Amino acid sequence: MIEHSKYKEPNLKDRYITLDMLMPCFKKVASSSLRVLGKSVQGDPISAFTLGHGKHRVLMWSQMHGNESTTTKAVWDMVNYLQGNETLAKTILDSCTLMVVPMLNPDGAKAYTRVNANQIDLNRDAQQRSQPESKVLRELFEAFKPDFCFNLHDQRTLFSAGSAKKPATVSFLSPASNEQRDVTPSREVAMKLIVAMNRVLQELIPGQVGRYDDGFNANCVGDAFQMQGVPTILFEAGHYEKDYMREHTREYIFHALMAALDTISKEKIDAQRTEDYYRIPENEKCFFDILIQNPQTINSNLEKGSRIGIRFQEILEGNAIQFKPELAEIGKLEGFFGHETFNCLNKKDLEQLSKHNEIMALIKRIEK
């Protein structure tokens, strides 16, 4: 297994990653491989670079949603590895040509929003292509003619890997290319690549890999590229225990990327079994950030046996992301879990919870 810490990009950390922060990273790639594809709504450059010179052409893009930065960090960790002297790095660069767009939505990244500066979700603009960022990606897709596409995202902390008490730290999807969700040749190739990545991740985070919902939407970029017959994979970076800055998750995305490129470069795709893709548990929405049991100890308006689910809002303050608690649900909440759980009948738990002023205020404000 690759020692990720040796290649972790020091210029990128935490959740707030902007174009300015990428500038030192761009200096690490050859200027001859770096190019500006176009500009965002607010006029910031959208850049891409190539690595390698092999026959297998891989297009990957990150931060299509500006507030989904974990994969951007992992991409630069990958670049650092590929520029080293490891045997696998040489094999990949000899066998593959990578086209990397590390930040498709620089305006959204700066504002820490999912959408672009025109409030458009670029991942719902694949057909109309009304936004400059959407046009840039499609023009690159048509010019580069990739054999594989990696669509790199983050997902919320609410997702579990199936219904078990396991967070979906990494999730994958081989998007459908029609309403019937047929397993077309390109979709099957993407499934097999996911199987190869999952095998590696199960050694690192057993039970914490999920399979994203495959409902068809032609306006989603992954579905649209799959419709063009190009194997496309959706990567979703999710939650790892006590890792809200997703510094652990970036490592698992890095290992997933390396496993995929290893499989492609060594032409091992056909050695994988499609049926193993369906053995990956589907994502479910079973987690709250905080689950509070027996809250009637704090607020007598609440029924005995009820539980409170709290989820965090991610708020940009200055140049950092703050996690603000928000009341999500009240009820029995059977089948739900908390990334952190407090039982208010437990003296130690109640003492710990009492230190969280905002959460205590939320509980006390609840009326009948």
From TrEMBL:
Residues 3-264 form the Peptidase M14 domain. This is DUF2817 domain-containing protein. It comes from Flagellimonas alvinocaridis. Its cofactor is Zn(2+). CDD domains: M14-like. GO terms for cellular component: extracellular space. Belongs to the peptidase M14 family. Pfam families: Peptidase_M14 (PF00246). Keywords: Hydrolase, Metalloprotease, Protease, Zinc. One of its GO terms (biological process) is proteolysis. PROSITE patterns: PEPTIDASE_M14. It comes from the Bacteria. One of its GO terms (molecular function) is zinc ion binding.
